[in-house]
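for the record, two folds in this file. i put them one after another cuz i was lazy. first one right below, seq on top, structure tokens after. the second one comes after a little note so u can tell where it starts
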Amino acid sequence: MAKRNRKTKIVATLGPTSSTPEMVRKLYEAGVDVFRLNFSHGAHEDHEKRLKIIRALELEVGHPIGVFADLQGPKLRLGTFKNGSIDIQKGMRLILDSNPEPGDEKRVFLPHPEILDVLVVGADILLDDGKTHLHVVKKGPDWVETEVVAGKKLSDRKGVNLPNVLLKVSVLTEKDRRDLEAALKMGVDWIALSFVQRPEDVAEARKLINGRAKIITKLEKPSAITHLAQIVDMSDAVMVARGDLGVEIPSEKVPAVQKRIIRSCRQAGKPVIVATQMLESMISSPRPTRAEASDVATAIYDAADAVMLSAETASGEYPLEAVSIMDRIAADVEKDDLYRKIMDAEHPDPDKNSPDAITAAASWVANTISAAAIVNYTTSGSTTLRTARERPAVPVLCLTESMEVARRLQLSYGVYPVHTSDVDNFADMVKKAIRLALEHEIAEKGQRVVITAGVPFGTPGSTNILRVAWVE
């Protein structure tokens, strides 16, 4: 496979309209670097079939492909209504209670006792992605009476959001625990955690995963933003999940929070994905709106590692067009002189150690001598993550003997991972780096590459060598 003409990665969700081997291949060829399996929908057998299709494609193209399982998390929903829905209006009173009987215009079942426990008079409840706003005016032992602040209609099982309320629930429901074990058994590279509220949620998941996959923490609760630095530190990657986040915090605050999260992740050297409604109109239209194109571009100017498509590729009518336009937007932004100025102006300060000093220097040297690429030899991926943090102007060719590491690095900015056997000495390392740079069209004869590695070989985090080599 030839290298992409952009460094920002594209994540696409597989679903009913995109799960045949032919479509998965077309999506990959159109620009998808990492595939998402959404465990909120579909049976385990469906996801396993999709993963097998991806792994077969990986063998065919001879290049690692990343896959992550996105867990549903403790999604809160209303119960049902006798007639499927009710009409509501401002000032109307509605009781939410623990009675499982179908509801009406006076009351409805809220199947989450943990919510009824923590709600207090004065609290706000948002339903159906914020379309309905309720305000708690009375509270009993197993019910709350609310007043409708805004809304026109409520139907069965609409989502519930509670701004500024910290729920005493595990980030992993019983369904999530079953899905987690199934996903790990299938062999996914990443597990995405939904509705994380506290650092302890990440710690709980890490204990269960036990090194079998890396963790993507989805930031969609205001309480998680309060603990941003600690959660980023405890995660392997982060997703700016703007759907629920945009319901629970005022919409005007979402862009600044997005920038804050991306900056925090870049400083920590952790991959960050911007997701939700990026090209939403392309679910049913062959072209995005200008606002959507601008939204994707903004995430790339912000220095996100990856941008993500959800329903656009899972159930939309134009999955290939959505990937193609996202690919073109990313490539176009990265050619902009202003983009390079932003990347260079925002360099995080390297830690005061040899690996950080070497990787920071590699980016500077590559730029100074107009090198074709930076080549990393890495065992754990840490060297390559440091290099990606620098947002170098050239591709990062990552050579690793671990297929798991190669797949995970597909999520990182500018990284082109190659699974290859290790080398025994420095001279062999240089020869192999040059040969693979040529083979994978990362460099041409007569160009130079900047190589970093650690001696002794095979020791994680030991980067201590920088070498400039001619491609011959």
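(here's the note) second protein begins now
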Amino acid sequence: MKPDISVIMSVYNGETYLAEAIESVRNQIFKNWELIIINDCSTDSTSKILADFSLRDDRIKVHTNEVNLRLPTSLNKAISLSSGKYIARMDADDICLPDRLEKQYKFMEQNPDVALSSCRFMTVKNGVYMSGGAGGRCDSKALKAMLLVANPLLHPGVIAKSVVMKEFNYDVTLTCTEDLELWTRMAMKNQKIEILDECLLIYRLHDKQITSTTLERQHTEVLKIQQKYYESLLVKMDEKMQEFYISGIYFKENADIDKFLEYAKWLRSVSTKNFDRNTINYALLEILAEYKRCGISKQDIIKAMLNFNPLFLVKEIMRRKRSAGKDIEKCMKVANALELKQTSGTKEFPIFENR
């Protein structure tokens, strides 16, 4: 029987968490799936783990690269081998909650105009669980605007129409930002992208991740991607704007309120054709929320907030507070059902905070 969903994964030396990740797919309530795993020349016990699972479950299909092709090329290979109506991403160190595929399949079936969607998630690091992305908007307009300033989609939580993924594919010239490039390229082609407002994945944070080891390369790749996105939907950023954008907006290493206000004024002025004002202000307010977590003073945050329409500001802060509360509550229910507990301290329940 042809699978409804093809789950694709690429793994390189993933022995530590691989079995748990695969089991989380096998334990899905939704049963009509195939799991296509590309073994990208692993040298640890990954090959044995994969061989054992493929013998136990014929829905698991393992393909081994002759040479190390890296993630984007391996994912494109998995896409070409897939036969499902939808393609779902999964990483070798994350955990699908049991109802992930069921809820994502239902969402895509009920929203045929959506090309790709992701989901809410929890993070886990050193045994401590936290909510991820709580309070953020899930609609396509907001995500298209958020892509101007950040990557709002969790890559391993994505599901998409197979025909769309086979048309677009990943850019194999990139090494650590292939997901952002794909989302922006799809958005430029008016492919509808949304987030399902359900907590469906546990996203593992650890020191070996690409996102924590290749910052300089990320800077270069992100700037290249975002220049294309800005030129397509807005205007080209000059060199001065590029410098602050990459360090002060996207990565927030050099957060600066005065430069932020200059950027905000510029963004509002050049975005009127393709974005409504409130959606752009929403994206800017999300940056300020991150600035607050970066240690920017309360006085500077207030200074920046005074540049927003007061009515919009009140409505958005109230909306975000309500939404974040609901998102965290959903995560806590999931955690309690799975008996996920804090491993340090005296409290016997998970820690949940907005990332």
